[in-house]
């Protein structure tokens, strides 16, 4: 390509788009589109570069290792299918094609497995401004969150002092995976003579049902702490339902997110429970573990739900899960094709019977790793803020968890202001609520019960010590000399 022809090409390449790989042929490509979003959708498509530019990009990509190429290919697949998903629809069980939002809202409420909760679904706006410029596809795009509200059937008319729980999930997971944990928790909490008001949990904007709602507007630069702000938006959206006492329970990435929300609003939570939270002074994972590369290489399409179920049950990673949790993953963690990533069922084994991950592996990778920075500093950033926590903290750690390498547990305890405590669950890895839902729920329940009692006592003492006629002290109105005024 001559210099003049290269100059003619440059104005039509969006400055934020990087070259990638074609999802089917694996050939290097670039994504081009006009700058103006007002152009007809027919011109917003993937343009194949010439043979000359393909060679140039092949040379460009030569400096990346295989793991980095995998991550860049994830970028390319998302960008490629962005143009194919302008009118993406899915097949409903009733036959005709339906919009994704209609399909998601087809089950507005249901009962959990043991019948202990009635679950209501809500769609609410996410916090509008994301932390990173590429947090959304376009800067003006607005995201939505799918929220589950768990209402205990044994507490139809909540009273003052009943506990509200805000929960945040781990990366690559979805909110329904925590339902067995919730049911064990409410059973144990009610045995102690206390009541839960509600449990609230949202899929983060790019995962689970939220990711499906937003798949046309998702970017590739994710900040964990966007969800911290989304939690505050959630509370603002339901001011009459989310009332004190409020406690936070966050697993893995969700732990860091709720700790950050507590830092943003120091008196929001009565206490915070971090279930193996991804918070560390340096790297969250040891050098031997590379979760982003593992996610990039994972399988994400199966010919049928039966094939997917057989696959998951054969993997050691999932065999350690409680069977009830794995059943929920098969129910909510998979979705039928077509999707934005796989818009054409004829090109996928199984056709319209094929299933893929509800949380795409591409967004899972972007959440593990900021490809724009080749780093993920959120765990370290939150560790630096631990000393400013204003509420009691409880850590529930898995004995064999991959993130508890070195002396990370000891460092977290040293950095966290007292009162704080840590519980280690034996024979348990990083996925504590999935592997040991009963054991972890009972620890959390006992801790929450204690802290709510303390909160209630302190609240009453504070009210009693605050005179109803409190006003400005009269001494501030006493005459002062000129010198004292100066």
Topology:
Elements: H1 3-9, E1 20-21, E2 28-29, H2 51-61, H3 66-84, E3 90-91, E4 97-98, H4 100-104, E5 109-111, E6 117-125, E7 144-152, E8 163-168, H5 179-191, E9 196-202, H6 208-213, H7 225-237, E10 246-251, H8 253-264, E11 271-275, H9 291-297, E12 301-302, H10 305-314, H11 316-319, H12 323-332, E13 334-336, E14 355-357, H13 361-368, H14 378-385, E15 393-398, H15 408-415, E16 420-425, H16 432-435, H17 437-464, H18 482-485
Parallel strand pairs: 8-9, 8-10, 10-11, 11-15, 15-16
Antiparallel strand pairs: 1-2, 3-4, 5-6, 6-7, 7-9, 12-14, 13-14
Helix pairs in contact: 3-9, 3-13, 5-17, 7-8, 8-14, 9-13
Describe this structure in words.
This is AB hydrolase-1 domain-containing protein. Residues 165-442 form the AB hydrolase-1 domain. InterPro entries: AB_hydrolase_1, AB_hydrolase_fold, AB_hydrolase_sf. It holds the Pfam family Abhydrolase_6. With 486 residues, this protein is an alpha/beta fold. The protein has two domains: 3-84, no CATH class; 107-300 and 360-461, Alpha/Beta hydrolase fold, catalytic domain (Rossmann fold, 3-Layer(aba) Sandwich), CATH 3.40.50.1820. It has helices at 3-9, 51-61, 66-84, 100-104, 179-191, 208-213, 225-237, 253-264, 291-297, 305-314, 316-319, 323-332, 361-368, 378-385, 408-415, 432-435, 437-464, 482-485, and strands at 20-21, 28-29, 90-91, 97-98, 109-111, 117-125, 144-152, 163-168, 196-202, 246-251, 271-275, 301-302, 334-336, 355-357, 393-398, 420-425. The protein has a nine-stranded mixed β-sheet, sandwiched between helices. The chain has a three-stranded antiparallel β-sheet with strand order 12-14-13. Strand 5 (109-111) and strand 6 form a beta hairpin. Helix 3 packs across helix 9, helix 3 (66-84) packs across helix 13 and helix 7 (225-237) crosses helix 8 (253-264). The model is unreliable at 1-67 and 76-106 (pLDDT under 50).
